[in-house]
Amino acid sequence: MSRPEHVLLNAYRVLHGRGAHRIQAAPYFYATGHWRCSTLVDGEQVLKYTNGWGWHLPGLAAEAVVDAEQEADAIWAALTPEQQAAAMRPDPAYVVWFSALLDACGDTVPALWDDYDNFLRDGYVWIGTGRVFPLPPGDSLRAYT
User: Which residues of the chain have pLDDT under 50?
Assistant: First the structure.
């Protein structure tokens, strides 16, 4: 069975495939050691998740084991009509980058920072011990820079 973190990340990929290119991720590790991920639309945070919540993924009313398609539906339903319209702005460079990021991560999760390091400031995404990935193209992380 997949981990909830991977279902969430793959839900973004599903949404990209549906044309919602401006759905973006801002993943990081919190001081407690939990992995967290903010869902962004056009660079603005709209939903949050911590793996401390288990299967209570963004957009779900309660904890439930779902697949990436179901989670993509839940995220989309949680957005306002204005956020949905903004998410549909084309950004093919981000979509290609994000898919390559997930492929590079394998069974780990990416992070932009943790309690001790700011990988974003240092110019890369952490994808596992000794492994890094380039930052995304464009302005998707403007809220964090």
Answer: none
